[in-house]
Structures
1.
Amino acid sequence: MSINKAILLPYPIDKAYDYRVPEGISGQEGSYVCVPLGQRQVPAVVWGQGANDVKPNKIKEVVSEYHLPPLPVDHRKFLDWMAGYIMAPKGSVLKLTMSVPSALEPPKPVMGYVINSAQISNQGLSPKAQKVLDVAQDGLARRASELSNLAECSSNVIKGLAEKGYLTLKEMYSAAPCRHPDAKRAGADLSDAQAESANVLIDMVKEDKFDTALLDGVTGAGKTEVYFEAVAQALKQDKQVLILLPEIALSNAFLDRFQKRFGCAPALWHSSLSPAKRKLTWRGVAMGESKVVIGARSALFLPYQNLGLIIIDEEHDPAYKQEEGVIYNARDMAIVRAHMGGFPIALVSATPSLETIYNAWSVEQGGLGKYKHLVLPERHGGAVLPDIKLIDLRADKPESRQYFISPTLQGALEGNLARKEQSLLFLNRRGYAPLTLCRNCGHRFECPRCTAWLIEHRRSKKLHCHHCDHNMHLPSKCPECKEEDSLAACGPGVERILEEVTERFPDARVAVLSSDTATTHDELKSILKQIYDHEVDIIIGTQIIAKGYHFPKLTCVGVIDADLGLSGGDLRASERTYQLLHQVAGRAGREQKADERSGRVYLQTFSPENRVMQALVAGDRDLFLRVELSEREGAFMAPFSRVAGVIVSGRDEKQVGEVARALGQCAPNTKDEKGRAIQTLGPAEAPFYRLRGKYRRRLLVRADKAIDVQKALNHWIKSVSIPSAVRVQVDIDPQSFF
Ligand code: ADP
Ligand code: ZN
């Protein structure tokens, strides 16, 4: 007899629909099935028992079932919970998991080599060939490339062994990445402090229940070495592990390190992965074969069979927030995922977010004491932290308005060049100049679709909008007053700093590292290698350079505009600026020992008295965090309240304004019977009032954490009539607070 099951489709719908499961199809919960939708047949997941709310003659039938282990119940519970929390349709959240439909089909078999079990004498084999056989000794089938990688030899050695009969070819149905990481290899010799933290993490993995730790240590303290120990422990327990990194920190250096430690490459997941690799990772994870995934935020949604540990490196990084489509914070959702799965999670940072430190500090320290707090206070091997100095641009002025490097920084760069040490100039702004204006009439070039100036790029001789794809050729005269040669570039971008450096240090070898110069992984890899090999004297970089890199010869960092990012009045601006500058500063002098000159960092600023600058110079992160926390508390902001942004957008400015005003008028602004508050600010213009041709207004709700804010938001938004051309989006736990 056939039965009905509720089946969730990866489309923006909130409900799982009933389908009939015919005989011969298991229809077990979590299994991937193919179902009719209109004229098409689409993949979907069996979500639960049927509601039997469809007339028997109307109900459609499941077409087929894919041969994969079902999506585990904790993953499904997690998606259900997340949809409710971020107020997104369940199907849209399922789509995050069903991201590679083609991976549901079994891959074509590939050929792999296995060792020939019939005894053949190994005598007379070259050491390289012997090494291949040592690797193959475990009897597993491997592709030639995998084998040559592991044995560090060319593919000819493998071909030779096959011809002589030592290896034979066999069909392999799965070429899943990272099937056999070696957890028994010795890791680094840990210092006492490192070992202490590692042991706490290892014990958490052994206990195999939900728990959260913050691994908090200065850059270079060995946090990666420490959490690798926890990864090894999880592998010994035959669990899958997820290491989340911000996209741009997914560097080859990091992957090499993983490979060295575990003897195989991790399964990768990031936006520039080829479709074929994407498919392999997805399927490998779903089959439970790929053991360690290293990925950007969306790797959280892969269909793990047996996840037992999550590590979130650089937990404070804003890249964990997905701002478009389904809006979520991968760090927060990962904690929920661990909770649902009943396994531990470790957050890792040198500059933890306020939300995290508040949870990690004990009650005596003014926090909640919810997380284990593991502190590594020193750099590994006695490397000393860099010496941070402020350059007051009001007094220490660059020579002319066309220059942006102050005399003091100039002197520091000269000294470093003379000593043959490397320097980094950091400016988080791509292109040549952030603003172009007409000296005659004052006309400014603005994006016609966004509230943003057009950025001049000299390399391409164009003006670009960094928020949409709008761009135009830089004209020779002002489009407003028609004056010839009247256009002036205002302010610096990295290209302009390159011009200044080339002019002042004609003999220096200079490289620019931004998303314009490193557009592919390969380009990035090649620039990073040049820097690592000290083929570059002065690096000019955007935030791409700030993350995690270790350049042994880099001893001096100059920040061109330390104030960038502080303006705008967002409550989170100070925190972000502190994190970024701290991270950049952490690139300096990573191998300088106590008896050597420490790394030097110069922050050029117009406001040296600002508490971000003062905290950086004094190296007093915790004091800074305490002051920030007390401000947040005073403002009834996260982490002391639950914050939600409501964004109203559309092409018709008037309509958008009307909806925003209507929402504002009936916005929740009350205290409930228990005295718990919910307050709404706005409507105000959103940070980008116009973005890609749409107008945007925004309201901000702050609520006592005990209040069901999703329920309140739902009720409120439903009470206002919203024309179809206007979109109302909810952003729970937004990144910016204005
Ligand atoms: P973090 O992640 O805290 O910035 P890393 O784990 O990257 O620090 O360590 C910084 C550098 O020091 C790396 O090159 C790492 O290999 C090395 N290192 C850290 N701890 C040890 C150790 N116990 N033994 C040997 N090298 C170590
Ligand atoms: Zn634009």
2.
Amino acid sequence: MAGKDRESFSGFESIADREKLLLARFAIHSTDTKGRKYAEPVQEYRGPFQRDRDRIIHTAAYRRLSHKTQVFTNELGDYHRNRLTHTLEVCSIARTIARALKLNEDLVEAMALMHDIGHPPFGHSGEDALNECLIDDGGFSHNRHALRIVEVLENRYPDFPGLNLSLETLEGQQFRAAKKDANASPSLEAQVVDAADSIAYDSHDADDALELGLLDIAQLMEVSIWSHAVTKVSEGRELSPVLLRRSVAHELIDVQVKDLLGNTMLELDRLQLRSAEEIKKLPPVVGHSEQIMHQKKDFESFLMHNVYRHPNVINVRDSAQQALRNLFEILKSKPHLLPENYRLRSQEIGLHRTIGDYIAGMTDRFAWREHARLSDD
Ligand code: MG
């Protein structure tokens, strides 16, 4: 049964007062939460979304993000982003946007920290390989798996399975996991997290690819959003390639955030929304101007051709995918090699999904180690 986090506590009232002062009418206020699947007493010193954020941070799945691939695996070096540092960059950008738009920053933070928690080892390559292995069992998607983690797999509380997050925090992830529906939008807070994700990876993937030598700056000068940023940061000065690259990475974030804020504020002004509920019936409101949207599209197609499909990236991808496929086959034919809690769970949910859950939870290095160990078995 859905419970409500609305009991009157002095601490909670001060959170409500603060939000009334700081948040817009169209933000999700803590007092309007629909509560949690399993009712819990309200805490005096933390609002419901702060509590969600803390629960997410304390999960094993969140900690393991530090050893999971974003785009480039850790054999390539130590400079580039991993899934955890990407998550923190998304969170930082999303909070900035949320505060400027007077949205609920705590809710945005919780959703941002959760948004990639369902990634298996080896990023999207790992996801594709697992999806292939599970194709007759409903497939695998990192967005759906994130929900599975927070609703079922993280067992840390005696009174309920998963984390028992607020329905608003879950709803953001449910939208990410569902097929896009043109007639429904998630909360503005969830829209902000999506936008921040794209702002973060467009900027940091180019920065990482340059550091790794997969690209050179001259190539990027054909991309308009990049070349404009170069003109802006150099101001006629001769900057060293490293300083130029790093300054451009910041400028790219700044230009996208400013554009997103300007464009979204205009839209919010035009709509004159009175409540968070009204968002659901509208097309997405948080978005870029036409000009930046086109520039981002060109930038992303450049990154697709020159970075994500770079031979060095593809080589690592192929061997990582083969390792996951092998692991899946080995465990399918020798289920006794699974840890005991997984063997027990396989009796309830079937062997294939259990193996999928086990592999999805692995870090890159644990997957390589298990692959080596079980291949010798
Ligand atoms: Mg992401």
3.
Amino acid sequence: MSKVELKGVYMNYHTLTGETSALSNINLSVETGEFLSIVGPSGCGKSTLLNIIAGLLKPSQGSVMVDREKITGYSPKLGYMFQRDHLFEWLNVMENISLGLKIQHKLNEENKLKIDSLIKKYNLWDFRSHMPSELSGGMRQRTALIRTLSLDPEVLLLDEPFSALDFQTRLKVSDEIYKIIKNEGKTAIMVTHDISEAISTSNRIIVLSKRPANIKKILEVNFGPEHNSPLKRREAPEFRLYFNSIWEELDLNDD
Ligand code: ADP
Ligand code: MG
């Protein structure tokens, strides 16, 4: 079933110096349980697209539907994870994770237990009283993800979630985060400029053109059951074929 649907989405930014056209006629349907990546050159409109799906920005034209209902602002069905983890440095891990529920006045016994179990399951229990500055980059991202998951969204929106990490850490963390998302049965829409990251995590990849972004290509990604995680996928022989086919489509040249 289609979980998220975009119909004829356009976005123009109006500034003092003029108009910037960021998105042009985006039509897209995301299935329940899917891990969809959106790749495109830097500045093409990826974050704009994700912000529109999140209901943080209103499109100039077109609509976004979640479960066939039009999105017009914040929806509890959607959870957002940004490029920077946005942890509050003066709150410890537990306090950071609980904050969303606290703000929504939903930090009841049941939800506290749910948070405890997520923290234990994803190996942060021993660090629950640590401050963010005492954590590795990977632990910070895991904390940010659990904070998002504590609100129990059905769809996770991820904007270049690993790009602030160094390469080695990024491989490990994307593997961990992928497994958590799958384990929790969430639908995911991830924006990235990293082709390998998209291939290693996704079952479908949308390739965007240069700004104003439109959809150049939609690619289905299939790996055998022995390549069932991002790290293992990177070792599959067909990985490079997918890479080349996206590379050819990606418009990375300056004019
Ligand atoms: P990406 O995430 O692919 O790098 P963005 O969606 O952030 O791209 O930006 C797409 C284009 O829209 C860029 O040219 C950017 O400068 C412009 N843009 C983004 N946000 C705004 C804004 N709030 N006001 C005006 N222009 C913006
Ligand atoms: Mg961006």
